[in-house]
Sequence to fold (163 residues):
Amino acid sequence: RVFRIMDDDNNRTLDLKEFSKGLSDYGVFLEKKDIEACFKHFDKDSSGTIDFDEFLTTLRPPMSNARKEIIQQAFRKLDKTGDGVITIEDLRGVYNAKHHPKYQNGEWTEEQVFKIFLDNFDSPDDKDGIVTKFEFLNYYSGVSASIDNDAYFVLLMKSSWRL
Fold:
């Protein structure tokens, strides 16, 4: 919500001017050089703008080792081939697409079910059907940011992935 409010021209990115104005609007008053340094910190790809993912990633709190480890366990469970990425072939061994309602009603094929499933974890800018460890960790980093308790997050992961 804060990002959308700061994005005055609604182009889904923040330039330095919007970022500076947004900070001021929220009562954060910094020297120009400090605003520029802060902007550079948010602008992970040095594109001159901050996109929504960069904004969220920068604001997320770091994850505990317990959270990182349970995410790694889930990734290893899905990565059946052990090649460091999750693909449709990996999913065939752990996810039964035939139980998906859209497969059952004939709307989607098994391939489509797997592709849509992978898209949840795949990088929004590069939906290539291959989920890397980084993309998987990034996805769960976002989930983690909304859960205060480590034990609850671990329980959620264990029950979701049957770990």
